[in-house]
Every structure is written in C-alpha cells, then in structure tokens.
Amino acid sequence: MTRVFNFGAGPAMLPTSVMQKAQQEFLNYAGMGASVIEISHRSKEFEAIINEADELLSELANIPSNYKILYVHGGAQMQFSAIPLNLLNRKQERKAAYVESGNFAKLANKEAARFGDIDIIASSEETNYDRIPTIDPKLIEDEYSYLHITSNNTIYGTRFQQFPMSNKVPLVADMTSEFLSRKLDIGNFGVIFAGLQKNLGPSGLALVIIREDLLEFAMPNTPNLLHYKTYSEKHSLANTNNTFAIYMMKLVLEWLSEQGGVAAVEEKNEAKANLIYDVIDQSNFYLATAQPEHRSIMNITFNLADNNLLDEFLNQALEKGLYALKGHRNVGGVRASIYNAMPEEGCKALAAFMHDFERKSG
Ligand SMILES: Cc1ncc(COP(=O)(O)O)c(C=O)c1O
To answer: Cα–Cα 20 to 30 A to 222, which of 31, 33, 65, 318?
Structure first.
C-alpha cells in the first residue's frame, strides 16, 4: 500500500508510526481483550492515558503549574463561543478586543459579539489577510476582558512572528494550526486553544490551556459543558469525552517527544518550509500570496502566475502522490499544509515537482 504525501489543511496527516501503533493496539488495548474505544472513560486504563497526555503536554509545551489543561468538546470553533462565555465577565464592561487576521478570526469575533462588546483593534481584511495587521499597543485598553488573536492563519498562510503583550489584558490565542510546532512562552498567554486535527490528532476536540485565575469569570448562564471550570474540576470527564481522540493525541505527543520535542521539530519545520518558499522566491512562475515577513511555516500559500495552469498543476501533483494541494476558495491557488507530521521527503518531493512543472510549462 502506498500512502500519499498529504498536504491537506486538516484533518491532516498524522505520523505513520502513530497510525501503526493505533492499528496494532486497536482490537486489544493493553491486553484487555477490548479496544480503547470500548472501555470506560472512568477505567483505570483510560485514566492512565489522560494522565500521560497531561504529563507529555506539560513537558513538551513547558506549561507552568498555574495553568490547567482541558480537553473540550466541539473543536476549535466551539471555543469561539466558550471564550466569551468564560471570560467576557472578567470586567464589568463586558468588552473584548479582537485582531482580525483571517477568516477564523472573523468567525471568532462575530460569535463573541453575541455576548458582549467586541472591538476589532486591527484587521488586514483590506489586503485579503495577506499579513498580520499592525496592532497599536495604545488600543489595548485595560478595560478589555481579553485580547483574542489567531496565531497562525491556516487559510492565508500567515502567522504572528511576535505576540502582542499586555500585562493587564490576558492574551487568548487560537493556535489550532500551529500549536507544538514552535517554541512558546505559555506564561505570556491567558488562554491557548487548538482544535486537535492539525498537529495533535483527530478532529472534534480542542485542547485548552488556561491560566487558573481565569476560571472564575464565566457568565452565570454558561452551559455546563462550555464552562471551563467544569472541565478543570472534573479532569475533562464531566461526561463521556472523546476518549479515542485523547488516546490518539497521547500517541502523537509520544512521537513528538521521540523527535526531540518542540525545539527540534521547530527547526525541522523551518527547514521544510524553506524548501518550498525557496522555489517560490526564485521564480516568477509561482507567486507567494502572504507577505514574506508574515509567512507561516505550517501553511504555505501561493498562486501560479498563469492561473489557467492551476488545474493541470493540481492533477499532475496528485499523480505524483502529492495530495490535497488546492488552496482555500478565499485565496485560490495552492496551499501546502506541512504540519509536524509531514516528513522532509514530502516537502522535497513538492519542491522537485514545482521545479519540474515550471520547467515543462514555463
Ligand atoms: C485557526 C483555526 N481556527 C479554527 C478552526 C476551526 O476548527 P474546528 O473545525 O475544529 O472548529 C480552524 C480549522 O481549520 C483553524 O485553522
């Protein structure tokens, strides 16, 4: 069986060794004669899995002891509702600041506006989100309950190189498409959340890392299963959680540890991204869509100078086992998502194909 190099934006490819381990253990987990998806979320075996996931995360992301790790239903977009429900009441003004750096950022601020006053303090909508907008620090007013950013913009291929800082307003970051791909100082954030389906595991669940003191401000009518304190108090097991996703994430985290951890993987990710950016930059045939100083190392977006060649590019790429390269409809062109699990060979194969396609068609 041949597996493609999967450049899909998410659900995205997972490390082959992780998939194999899951396959090996699937029918008979830990000699129990039952699958991991057939055992109770309250069994000692599952408890061991969730505890190990916590430990691995704490170690890999260097999470300070005053932060809680939560596994929350509903993927990343559910957090677009949970964040305002849990945090807007931190200040009586019920106001929050949002940076609009892409489609998901926009969805997040629209959802939050259902619960309070939202100020968009910076936006790059005018340039079709080809950059991270400049944030005027003076606009981060103390009265805000929080400041929300999308750290890596999956559709547009941009990321914050540096994060906005305020010692009064907690920073909330949607890190869905980059968590654990780069080193971070968690202590600079109030909340980090990420849907699992890019760098962490299967879809449908979100990892939330929250500073303990921020668990106290939920609006009184917050639904129990959107209330971060419920997750914190019940170790994310107030009801039957997605045990399979947590198990898969634990395997992915073990793999990441074996790779040498986040710093080692970040170096590899930078090298992988450069293989493709170099081809784009050395050619007039391919046109980068993101401004160079805002480029993501997870999602690489570009157009063909002659858009009529796009379908042919995608078809030929697929024949070579380079799968899911079509750009998002908001940008068009090509998007190569190269999360942690994408091997260097995948990026080399894409770079070689791009050279070859240019030579034959340029
Ligand atoms: C940055 C970002 N935020 C949010 C989402 C939405 O995630 P979900 O489908 O888990 O709600 C995505 C999905 O691609 C994303 O890339």
So the answer is: 65
> Distance between CA 358 and CA 131 in Å, rounded?
27
Q: pLDDT-based confidence at 331, cuts 50/70/90?
A: very high
- Identify the residues whose C-beta falls under 6 Å from ligand 1: 10, 75-77, 104, 150, 154, 174, 176-177, 195, 203
Which backbone phi and psi does 65 adopt, to 5 degrees? -70, -15
Q: Please state whether the predicted TM-score (pTM) of the whole model is above 0.90.
A: yes
Alpha-carbon separation of residue 271 from 257, 262, 276, 343 (angstroms) = 19, 14, 9, 11
Which of 241, 258, 275 is where one domain is finished? 258
Residues 235 and 345 in one domain: no
The CA 104 to ligand 1 mean position distance, Å, reads 7
Percentage helix, strand, coil for the chain under 3-state DSSP, each rounded to 5: 45, 15, 40
**Among 80, 98, 104, 109, residue to substitute to test ligand 1 (most atoms within 8 Å of Cβ):** 104
* CB-based burial label for 319 (10 Å; 0-12, 13-18, 19+): exposed
* Domain residue limits at 266: 261-361
Instruction: State how far the Cα of 66 lies from the Cα of 298, in Å rounded to an integer.
Output: 29
125 and 244 in a single domain? The answer is yes
Residues 16, 346: Cα–Cα separation, whole Å: 13
Q: Tell me the pLDDT tens digit for each residue of 30-48.
A: 999 999 999 999 999 999 9
